[in-house]
Amino acid sequence: MMTGEQYLREKLRKALQEKGFVDDEFQITLDRPKVAEHGDLATNVAMVLVSKLRRNPREIAADILQALDVDAEIIAGAEVAGAGFINFRFGNGYYQAALSDVLTAGAEFGRSDCGNGERVQIEFVSANPTGPLNVVSARAAAVGDVMAELFKAVGYTVEKEYYVNDAGRQVRLLGKSVSARYMKLLGKDEVFPDEGYHGDYVGELAKTFLEQYGDRFANLKEEKRWQELSELALNTILQSQKDVLGAYGLHFDIWFRESDLRDRNAHREVLDTLSEKGFVYEEKGAKWFKSTQFGDEKDRVLVTSEGEPTYFLVDIAYHADKYDRDFTRLYDLWGPDHHGYVPRMKAALLALGYPEGSFDVIIIQQVNLLQAGEVVKMSKRAGKIIEMQELLEEVGVDVARFFFVARRTQSPLDFDMDLAKNTSEENPVYYVQYAHARICNIIKHAEERDVPFPKQANLKLLGQKEEINLIKKLLEFPDLVSKAAQHLEPHRLPTYLQELAATFHRFYHHHRVVTDDKELTNARLVLIRCTQIVLANALKLLGVSAPERM
RNA sequence: GCGCCCGUAGCUCAAUUGGAUAGAGCGUUUGGCUACGGACCAAGAGGCUGGGGGUUCGACUCCCUCCGGGCGUACCA
Predict the structure, then answer these.
(1) Is the distance between the Cβ of A469 and the closest atom of strand B smaller than 7 Å?
(2) Nucleotide nearest to A298 in CA–C1' terms
(3) Distance from residue A200 (CA) to nucleotide B71 (C1'), in Å?
């Protein structure tokens, strides 16, 4: 069905054209005023037309109103206000009718198809497989997952991908580190690599391997031992990363391995392509990419003077591969320490001829863990990190996901452990979930009193302020989902959920649902059922559970 | 030095992407609830949106500048 906004937009356009104020191209802005006194929707068209018509905005507005022909059931009020805004108020009849659409749509309410099935890929977490996932990865995991779900909700075809850096120096260092620990357990001396991994998990891996495979690695040649142990360690770590993410409710469609690219020389192909296009030159024995031609601040090395391909070159090949898989929009979620890398990646993809704007990077800022008001210091070097697993054990999946998504990605996030562990009203997650549980309980209570959920209800009985406000809040949901997807702002979901829960609790305290008034009871049952639907749909997008009991 | 991000109520954050009187939660003060769950509700106090300048009908939002914090600035990944 047509929303009230669409209806009004159409009627406004008609009025404006009748007056000869605008052409077909003109965009009418309609938005929801912050202040209730300003109505349900407002437009600034009169003010926008000031310079074109050279007239007083309030007069223009009055003219528009005079030409506007709307159904009084839908638009109950329209007036000129402020500097030249036109404020519109929907009639209760409109809201009451719209409520039944929520019920009909059910789990589909809030979803749309404006993405037209376009193929979108979102790559995130992609932590080095050289250690356990930390809390920063936990934030990226939550944000990326919800972004992907938002894209799906508005009609895109989405794949979630994890890039595994299973080649190169880091992995070799991991092998050497494990090897050194392993040999030490056997009482043999092997030098621990300079920049090796000091975390406790390295020793634990060595111990596990010793138990599982005995001392057979000790007899191998050094190089061979490092190689085998690094492969073993990598797979073990990767599996535990998958396990943690799985427990977090996150399942990647693709785990893409860097070694695959190297094995089939994809980076060489890309190098050739860039060379043919004339964007590569040699200097001091190295091969450079002219990224400055595409807005980067300096040129970048693709192949070192030692003949080694840089990480950058392989990464270009990786992104080219994504395009080869027919994705038309690519999103990467990176940590703040990689933001300097964005211009060169964009430059490379432009040089290869991929459309501008088809690739974007979202930088997820850092996470500070707070305990008793103090920042918990973490150091990767010393192996002192709070693992994602520990965090989940401490606060639970629902709380972690909600907290991580609740902030804008550009802002650093203070994760308050004490608040997160608090199972009382202070914790917004419980506040929202409680609203859902409370509704389930009321519906159950009604059934126990032989008031089954009605097939038909007279929604015109829902005229109280708290009832109308609740309906308004519910109807905001579809627009919220599409805006959140469009602007890559999943944090809007938690904000909205808190508002919705508050609006519901307010209604609950002013009005009783199950009463002797059969008709009214039925209407209110529909209202809370619709609230339950929207709460559940929003929580689903977040990957947070919607409990029936707490 | 240069580049990117951040700076909003005591604290943690929003603000429909340029709209009208900047809003929530926590904390604080006061008051409710013998009901379908008190993990709730109502009322109050709390602000020069880091400072200054500019753009225009209109700025938390865009531009310039300064201050403060974080990150980056490799033939590393």
Answers:
(1) no
(2) B73
(3) 27
- Closest CA-bearing residue to C1' of B5: A410
Cα–Cα distance for residue pair A204/A72, rounded to 1 Å: 73
Rounded-to-integer distance, Cα A494 and Cα A484, Å: 11
H or E element in which residue A31 lies: strand A30-31
pLDDT at A381 over 70: no
For the ranges A332-336, A379-383, A497-501, A513-517, the lowest mean pLDDT is seen at: A379-383
Shortest CA–C1' contact from A80: which nucleotide?
A: B20
What value of ipTM does the predicted structure carry? 0.94
Q: A368: helix, coil or strand?
A: strand
CA-to-C1' span, A195 to B14 (A): 43
CA A540 to chain centre: 13
* Prediction pTM value: 0.94
pLDDT (mean) for A150-162: 97
Which A residues 236-255 have CB within 7 Å of strand B? none
Q: Are A356 and A327 in contact (CB under 8 A)?
A: no
Residue type, A88: F
- Protein-to-nucleotide distance from the CA of A38 to the C1' of B60, whole angstroms: 21
Q: Which tokens sit at A321?
A: 């591969």
Mean pLDDT across the stretch A234-258?
A: 96
CB proximity list for A352: less than 8 A, separation 6 or greater: A270, A273, A274, A277, A316, A320
Measure, in angstroms, how far nucleotide B77 C1' is from residue A107 CA.
44
Nucleotide with C1' nearest the A444 CA? B36
Which A residues 475-494 have CB within 7 Å of strand B? 483, 487, 489, 491-492
With residues binned 3-state (H G I as helix, E B as strand, rest as coil), the percentages for chain A, rounded to 5, are 55, 15, 35
Query: Where on strand B do bases come within 7 A of a protein Cβ?
Result: 2-7, 12-17, 19-27, 32, 35-37, 39-42, 57, 70-77
List phi, psi (to 5°) of A386: -85, 120
Q: Report CA torsion sign: A107, A111, A117, A123.
A: negative
Q: Are A112 and A155 in contact (CB under 8 A)?
A: yes
Tokens of A434: 């409680």
Both structure tokens of A66: 């005079």
The pLDDT of residue A417 is 83
> Cβ–Cβ contacts within 10 Å for residue A407, how many?
20
Q: Quote the CA–CA distance of A155 and A118 in Å, as a whole number.
A: 8
Q: β-strands A286-289, A280-283: how paired?
A: antiparallel
- Residue-range domains of chain A with CATH: 4-90 (3.30.1360.70), 124-251+365-421 (3.40.50.620), 425-542 (1.10.730.10)
The closest nt to A48, taking CA to C1', is B57
Distance A113 CA to B3 C1' (A): 39
Tell me the pLDDT band of A327, cut-offs 50, 70 and 90. very high
Which residues 314 to 373 of A reach strand B, CB within 7 A? 336-341, 363, 365-366
Q: Are A141 and A248 in contact (CB under 8 A)?
A: yes
Say whether the CB atom of A35 is under 7 angstroms from strand B. yes
